[in-house]
Write a sequence for this structure.
């Protein structure tokens, strides 16, 4: 089964062909107010995937998409809340050693740090913990708050945002995961962690789409 995501112009081309078949590439271009050359790659994709059929001196016909798994709409409809997992949280006064143990027992790439009011105040990654260990610090007694990345330098997302946005944030900021947060009712500047979205969550989601 072919997995493909069509762009907006390709979807418009399909609608035009459905309504006007057979139709030439010149006529399609006129409908979209673009040049024929502009549509060349779009028409090539649509014919190669079998959605459109091209006949010389006749034009384009609509063949259908029953053999395709068009995942674009499924992705756009999914929100962070649909695929997020439980966060791994520790208090900021916990020792670096204890956080290392937590990380490997939980098998995650990053841990979110909260204060005594359960408000997000930091995050640490495996790289952060490795640096602390190599630095020969007293990791049994040094609190994790000494090495964590602090607010407001933490990338976050809320659970009603799109999965695509979450993926972009993870890639752009080169992190393993980001905390899913919601505003504290008593202080809107404070963030409470309600979930975690990672590269693994997103990869599993795409694999499920492919399998289905």
């Amino acid at each position: 089964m072919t997995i493909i995501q069509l762009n907006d112009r390709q979807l418009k081309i399909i609608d035009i062909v459905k309504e006007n078949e057979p139709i030439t590439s010149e006529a399609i271009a006129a409908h979209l107010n673009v040049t024929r050359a502009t549509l060349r790659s779009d028409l090539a994709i649509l014919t190669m995937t079998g959605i459109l059929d091209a006949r010389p001196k006749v034009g384009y016909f609509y063949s259908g998409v029953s053999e395709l798994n068009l995942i674009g709409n499924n992705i756009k409809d999914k929100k962070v809340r649909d695929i997020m997992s439980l966060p791994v949280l520790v208090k900021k006064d916990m020792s670096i050693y204890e956080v290392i143990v937590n990380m490997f027992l939980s098998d995650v790439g990053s841990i979110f740090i909260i204060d005594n009011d359960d408000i997000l105040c930091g995050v640490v990654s495996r790289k952060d913990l490795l640096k602390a260990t190599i630095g020969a610090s007293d990791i049994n007694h040094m609190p994790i708050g000494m090495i964590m990345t602090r607010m407001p330098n933490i990338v976050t997302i809320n659970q009603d945002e799109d999965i695509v946005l979450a993926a972009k944030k993870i890639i752009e900021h080169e992190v393993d995961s980001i905390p899913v947060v919601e505003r504290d009712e008593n202080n809107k500047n404070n963030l409470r962690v309600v979930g975690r979205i990672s590269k693994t969550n997103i990869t599993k989601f795409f694999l499920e789409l492919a399998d289905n």
